[in-house]
Each structure stands twice: as structure tokens, then as C-alpha cells.
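Whiteboard transcription, Tuesday session. T.W. wrote the C-alpha cells on the left side:
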């Protein structure tokens, strides 16, 4: 089933024009927080995918042990090796606050790991991002963090969580979704119990849902100024069945988190008036970003698989993102109507 037309058109409205009217940074500044001793590929894939998707600038916030490898992967990434195990938390907090003043969105989790110090820095980063009203994407070990303490993200409607099958099962159980809930309703219930956080349940078909009708929802927690409380109570589910590749390579989820993060960065630029007419409600942007990111990532996976088959690796997807974007949203949106 295709994505409903009204949703597709709202997604298109968040795409920055490529017509020379915007300056550097107005097409999105993305931050990826992750990258510990054993994990350098995941934050790289998330951050470089944001650039390939169309963000202007992409930052990686990581531990010093991960910084060297990530820098060597691409000179296009801005790498900040500030998550030092021995550093006082207040020092790192100050550095994060300074850096976040330059970002539109924070992607947390790719290559984060479960070491206590990295998890602590992730919680601090999410708290800072929430206070600044930033959009947030949480994946991988950031989901482990939420499962242990849901208050980190509870009620924050500017956030998207992106669990795979295993992560979704674990997170649902930790948050309190009844295991007897029909499978097609579990994502909706998870979103409701998290207070309206958008859930992108990855699978054969991606399920994206935002449910703000539960008693756990708190409009004040989401910094949605001047929002009508009654209009902000909604439950919406979209299933993305865009064909993907037949091989699910490790790292594809990191590409997706970078893609969703870029759409959210564009949403923040749209919200701030860099382009567009502000008719798309801010509270809908997480769902729209998740749908748009899912469609393009799945298409890029199919393109890569068509060329490389069983040998497909995540690296093969990166060069396909631009073509996948053009297939979904058209050349006019990619090149400002000049083709």
C-alpha cells in the first residue's frame, strides 16, 4: 500500500530547495553521538548517510579511541573526541552544550556501546537536547538506555525511536506493553506508553506510529509552544512497504538513523523559517521524517542489492542514496526544478 498522498506531500514540504536561496547550514546540521572503543563503523554510517542524504554538515561526537578511525573514513565528517572516560561530567556537559547550539538534530546510539561512561554521556546529551528543543533519533544502544530508564525520553514528542525486531521486543517488554497485545497494535501502544514518542518499528515492512492519546502524554514536555492540546491528541500509523534489498546487512539501520535525522534537521530549518510556509505542524515532523527516511533507505538497499547481490555491504548503499531519493521524491526536489 503506498504512503497516503497527504503524508507524502507534507514530507516533500520539508525538503530544502536547491535553488541558491539557502546558505550553508540551512539544509541541516546533524550530530551523531556514538563511537566507543569497539564501534566506529556505526557512527560513521549514520553521519555520512546524513551528508549523502543532503544535510549540509555532519558531526560525530565520540570517544577519543574511536575518533582516529572515524576521521580516516571520511574528511567530510567533523569529529569531536570529547567523550573521555576520565573527564568530569560537568566538563563534557559544557562541551556538549556549546556544540549543540550549532546543531538541528541529535542522533544517539550508533556505536554507543553499553559502558557506564558512554551511557551516562548519552543521558546527559539527550537531556541537553530536550532542553534546547532539538529533534532526537534514538537507535541501537540508546534503546537499551531507554529500556533501563524511560524518563530519559518520556513524553518528548520531538523524538523518534528506531528499534529492529529484537530491540522492539525487548523495549516493548521493558516499557510494559502487554505481550498479548495483537502484533499490529504493539508499536502504537509503545508510542502511547512513551508519551507520544514516534516509533519506527523496522521489519519486512516498516511501521511508523505516533500515539499521543494516552495519559502518559505531556504536551509541555515537548516544547510545542502555542499548540492546541485537543488538536495534539492523535494516533496515526503508516506502513512503509517500499521494496528493499533481499539482504539485510549490518549497518543498514545506521543509514536509516542518519536519513531520519536529516529529515528532522530539515524539519527544524523549516520550523525556524529558513524555507517553506510553516503549514506543516511541528508535532507531525517525527512521523514524516521516519516515513521519508524509511522509503529512501529501503530503496537504496534495493539499488545496492541489484548491483551486488549476496555480497552487499552497507558501504554499497551510500552511493545509492541520492538516486534513491530522486526515485522517491523526484528530481525537481533534488535539483530545485532545474532538470
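and on the right, the sequence the group agreed on:
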Amino acid at each position: 500500500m503506498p504512503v497516503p498522498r497527504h503524508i507524502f506531500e507534507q514530507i516533500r514540504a520539508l525538503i530544502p530547495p536547491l535553488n541558491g536561496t539557502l546558505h550553508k547550514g540551512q539544509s541541516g546540521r546533524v550530530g551523531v553521538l556514538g563511537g566507543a572503543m569497539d564501534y566506529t563503523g556505526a557512527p560513521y554510517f549514520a553521519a555520512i548517510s546524513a551528508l549523502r542524504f543532503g544535510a549540509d554538515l555532519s558531526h560525530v561526537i565520540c570517544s577519543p579511541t574511536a575518533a582516529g578511525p572515524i576521521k580516516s573514513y571520511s574528511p567530510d565528517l567533523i569529529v569531536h573526541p570529547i567523550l573521555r572516560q576520565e573527564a568530569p561530567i560537568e566538563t563534557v556537559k559544557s562541551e556538549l552544550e556549546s556544540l549543540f547550539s550549532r546543531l538541528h538534530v541529535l542522533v544517539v546510539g550508533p556505536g554507543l556501546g553499553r559502558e557506564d561512561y558512554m551511557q551516562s554521556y548519552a543521558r546527559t546529551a539527550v537531556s541537553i537536547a530536550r532542553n534546547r528543543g532539538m529533534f532526537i533519533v534514538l537507535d541501537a544502544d540508546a534503546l537499551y538506555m531507554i529500556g533501563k530508564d524511560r524518563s530519559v525520553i518520556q513524553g518528548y514528542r520531538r523524538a523518534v525511536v528506531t528499534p529492529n525486531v529484537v530491540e522492539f521486543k525487548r523495549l516493548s517488554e521493558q516499557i510494559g506493553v502487554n505481550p498479548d497485545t495483537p502484533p499490529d497494535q504493539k508499536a502504537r501502544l509503545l508510542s502511547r506508553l512513551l508519551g507520544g514518542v514516534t516509533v519506527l518499528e523496522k521489519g519486512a515492512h516498516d511501521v511508523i506510529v505516533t500515539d499521543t492519546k494516552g495519559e502518559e502524554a505531556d504536551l509541555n514536555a515537548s516544547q510545542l509552544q502555542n499548540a492546541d492540546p485537543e488538536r495534539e491528541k492523535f494516533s496515526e500509523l503508516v506502513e512503509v512497504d517500499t521494496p528493499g534489498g533481499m539482504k539485510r546487512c549490518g549497518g543498514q539501520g545506521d543509514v536509516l538513523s542518519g536519513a531520519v535525522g536529516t529529515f528532522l534537521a530539515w524539519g527544524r530549518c523549516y520550523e525556524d523559517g529558513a524555507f517553506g510556509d510553516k503549514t506543516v505542524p511541528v508535532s507531525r515532523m517525527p512521523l514524516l521524517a521516519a516515513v521519508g527516511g524509511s522509503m529512501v533507505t529501503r530503496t537504496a538497499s534495493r539499488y545496492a542489492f541489484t548491483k551486488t547481490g549476496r555480497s552487499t555491504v552497507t558501504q554499497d548503499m551510500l552511493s545509492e542514496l541520492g538516486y534513491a531519493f530522486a526515485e522517491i521524491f523526484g528530481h525537481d526536489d533534488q535539483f530545485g526544478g532545474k532538470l
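Someone added at the bottom: Strands lie at 29-33, 57-61, 78-80, 105-108, 135-138, 159-161, 198-201, 206-211, 235-240.
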